[in-house]
Inverse folding.
């Protein structure tokens, strides 16, 4: 393994994103933290601990040969699915904001769907490498991984967490495309899933209300349209250079989840268009380096892992920023590396660690 081949640009981008995340979590969460816990630094201190753990995991995994994951791919997926089932049990899963997405393990709170994302990427990459000769067949090659995707998708929808479910589905589909699945098969799959997607979006009252609010938030500005309106207020009031760090007005209990799902709105308000553009540019560079690593990986497993991890991160970031900017209906999903949340930060940094190890062995 050539240690000189580790990607310095990737490391720099990740460190900037994590550092920016810590700074913005402090600003976005300080009002809520002071009001609820009497300590403006409450969420920052917790996020700092998770960031340290995540960076340690990234460092360790960057030096662990990525081929080892093939041995444990099935176990990882089974554990992830088990956790997704356990979190749905009313007496075990923690209910917050109408969603049952969190598990208490001692003093820690974990989100099984975050674990499932990385576990599914590892399993799919391993499965595709083992069955690559079958991918010309829909039933023998494509259908088995889609069946597993369907199980994970439905379990996450039941939490409910449509944003994460879409992220996982999109990631797996792109991995299958990269593996050589036929476009005709994927096109048929896309067409066949349209009625199901319509049901998931319009079948629940709150999702239907979010869709209507997306189309016209001012029809009900104090209830269904409130979140998106406050988010647009935050982005719009930032102007070119922003109001200044810590000067957000929308975080004073106007903007929903300012340190998690809507932290990008606080960035736009405090750091302006320049700050928001910097975040977008950093994710663009991350995507560029991730896919370069995928294209130059030493084998198919490395290509698929790098493709899956990069897609997982970038697709989640795109969905979050699209929600905050009112480009798509609201769905609760965090901004990778920046939003407050331990499970997401550790899993994302772990994925980057795997990506770095692939880059250490790549032909770059």
């Amino acid at each position: 393994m050539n240690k000189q081949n580790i990607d310095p640009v990737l490391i720099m981008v990740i460190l900037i994103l994590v550092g920016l995340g810590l700074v913005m979590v402090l600003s976005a969460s300080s009002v809520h933290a002071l009001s609820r816990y009497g300590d403006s630094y409450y969420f920052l201190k917790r996020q700092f601990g998770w960031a340290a753990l995540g960076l340690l995991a990234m460092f360790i995994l960057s030096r662990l040969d990525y081929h080892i994951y093939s041995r444990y791919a099935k176990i990882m997926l089974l554990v992830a699915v088990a956790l997704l089932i356990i979190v749905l049990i009313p007496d075990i899963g923690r209910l917050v904001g109408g969603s049952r997405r969190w598990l208490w393990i001692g003093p820690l709170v974990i989100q099984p769907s975050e674990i499932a994302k990385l576990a599914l990427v590892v399993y799919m990459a391993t499965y595709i490498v083992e069955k690559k000769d079958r991918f010309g067949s829909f039933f023998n090659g494509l259908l088995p991984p889609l069946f597993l995707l369907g199980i994970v998708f439905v379990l996450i929808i039941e939490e409910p967490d449509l944003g994460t479910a879409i992220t996982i589905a999109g990631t797996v589909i792109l991995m299958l495309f990269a593996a050589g699945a036929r476009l005709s098969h994927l096109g048929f799959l896309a067409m066949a899933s349209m009625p199901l997607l319509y049901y998931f979006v319009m079948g629940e009252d709150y999702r239907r209300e979010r869709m209507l609010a997306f189309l016209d938030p001012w029809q009900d500005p104090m209830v269904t349209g409130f979140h998106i309106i406050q988010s647009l207020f935050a982005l719009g009031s930032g102007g070119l250079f922003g109001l200044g760090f810590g000067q957000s007005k929308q975080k004073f209990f106007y903007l929903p989840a300012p340190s998690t799902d809507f932290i990008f709105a606080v960035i736009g308000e405090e750091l302006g268009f320049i700050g928001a553009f910097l975040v977008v540019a950093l994710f663009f560079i991350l995507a560029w380096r991730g896919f370069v690593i995928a294209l130059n990986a030493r084998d198919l497993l490395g290509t698929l892992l790098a493709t899956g991890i990069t897609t997982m991160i970038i697709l989640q970031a795109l969905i979050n920023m699209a929600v905050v900017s009112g480009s798509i209906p609201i769905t609760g999903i965090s901004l990778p590396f920046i939003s407050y949340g331990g499970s997401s930060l550790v899993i994302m940094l772990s994925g980057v660690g795997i990506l770095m190890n692939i880059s250490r062995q790549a032909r770059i």
Summary: The CA atoms of residues 294 and 306 lie 5 Å apart.
